[in-house]
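Workshop exercise sheet. Pairs work together: one partner reads the sequence aloud, the other fills in the structure field after running the prediction. Swap roles for the next sheet.
Pair: D.N. / O.F.
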Amino acid sequence: MWQPRTAPAAVRWLVPLLVALLLGQMAVAMATSAARQTPTIDEPVYVGAGTVYLREHSLRHNPEHPPLGKLLIGAGVALAQPRLERPVPDHQGALGRRLLYESGNDPWEVMRGARLPVLVLTLLFGLVVFAFARELAGTAAGLAALALYALSPDVIAHGSLATLDVPAAGFLLTSVWLVWRARSGLPRFLPLAGLALGAALATRMSALPALPVLMALAGWSVWHARGRSLRRALLGAALVAVVAVAVVWAAYLAVDPRLRWAPQQPVPVVRGLRGLLVQLLPFPEAYRDGMRVQFGLEEHAWEGYLFGRLYTGSLWYYLPAALLVKTPLGTLALWAAGACALVTVRRLRPAAPYVLLPAAVLLAAAMHTTRDLGTRYAVFLPLFLAVAAGCVPAVRGRWPAPAVWAPAVWVLVAFAAVSSLRTYPYYLPYGNEAFGGPAATHQHLHDSNVDWGQDLGRLADRLRERYPGERVWLVYKGSGVPSYYGIDASDPLAVPEQRVRGLLVVSDSSVAKARGRLAALIDSGRPVDEVGHSLTIYRR
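Structure field:
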């Protein structure tokens, strides 16, 4: 571990100032961009479920995700004190619409409250990134890592939404950092690591592949710190696992102390090795049924879109390819350099398994799924690889000379910063310069990479300002209710093609997947405008 030296007074106050500035700009970027975004596809489900968890203590909604993240979102919703008209719908999508649009609430206010806990967590995870990299390679490493994290378009985009991806990733990184700290002979960090790991498992089931990895790393930390004792290593690994499992149980008990569970949707039967593994999980039945629902979703024939190709199923290389589009070029270069530095630099090598192994296992698991729907499934990479990239300024050697190497690192950080700042406030459809920037992302990717239903409010403003009184036809992919925002639009697929005259507005994901009549309508129209790099307006 890097040993800090006594710094001059000017440096001691400069570092907290730089940390505050980086996190401050991140907070402003997240808050101001989210303030103009209507609910994305997943958000109403989590908002509705979290509200019911807190008010009715019922686990029946959204079992495919554990409750902790939704409890936090629900706590933010409670700040707005919304009404929920009865009867409460059993369907989770209908529940979200009922809360946001059918109970007399202001959806803008409700969503501000729902997004606040995730935004705060995202900022706190930035401190973890800084602390982890600083411990590995010094203050410059911490600042470089924090800069890449705080300027990551994917982290800003999803860290400002009431979703579960960034919280789960941040809890995992926190757990890994605490396990690393235990390696220095500080066993008190192991229970804390178990708490953070349990929080991740209680937020998203996609964190499960990290459980054996964190247990192994915990055992290795104890082995290194406690005189290579196998018994103590096994006890350390078991401690982390037991605490993590306890946190998952606590999350379910917080919703319903009686753990009543009556699924409102058919639970798939999972056979073979998967079924056995689910049955052996030491979690509540609601968690295990949620896993079965997830495996059932894996059997669905999802449509993917990559570099102009529409396909059914999944491509094993989808996530790496999508990350090439969605990550700033300077960040990509530093990720690669950071991974190499951890493996090749002797004093950094002990940290390599802690930083790289969990990320690699999680990425492999994400690449194995059948849902090619966005880089949010790999949003843990900007966290873990920011820590790795932060170690690059610490590299010393004959070539490149430190006088050349260190400035080159900061040039790449600046390049990533400029790329990120240029996309403001449209972080969801971000694409780097090699692929044409945010305006061209829809040509390469779809769904949450580009168009997740976030720009309905902006569309309403655009139609009112530029096209008042014109007939509007809308094909919208999202969870918002167009009429609430003042959009008077008709379905172009419900009438003969020749009757579709005026403005045809189509979500870019629908453009990418257009077939048949919709493709004919688009081909016979003329693009005249776009909204938020996620909606295209055609004139017919």
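Discussion prompt: The first strand starts at residue 303 and ends at 306. What would you look at next?
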